[in-house]
Amino acid sequence: MSKAETGEAERIERERKTGLAAYKNKDFKAAIRHLEKARKVSPDDISILVALGGAYLHIKDYQKSVDACEKVVRLCEGRPEGNTPAAEALATLSHAYFKLGDAPRALKCYRRSLAKYHGDIFSKLDKSKLPSKS
């Protein structure tokens, strides 16, 4: 990697970290500004997309929230390690669809989110410690 490429990669990583920090501090407009810069270089970075979906939801740009979250769900499909970010994206999608007036779609996303989230939790449980069904 050349010095210029290394510098660019470091700048993008700084944008990503700054955007995620702004999101955690509830500065959603700043988060979007930084995360969109990072997204231009890493368009399939799931952490960036999940945060963008949430930030857009908070500033009431519901369609952009939907777009980011649907991409997360597509990227996580068929990947077991993708259950948690997909569940988070589906929960955000359910809120966005509800705000857009699409209650049936919101409910569908909410149910899918619960299934992914609980499926991930249950797979981590020690099955021997669960009560028997007899």
Automatic annotation (TrEMBL):
TPR repeats lie at residues 12-45, 87-120. Keywords: TPR repeat. Gene3D superfamilies: Tetratricopeptide repeat domain. The keyword Transmembrane does not apply. This is TPR-like protein.
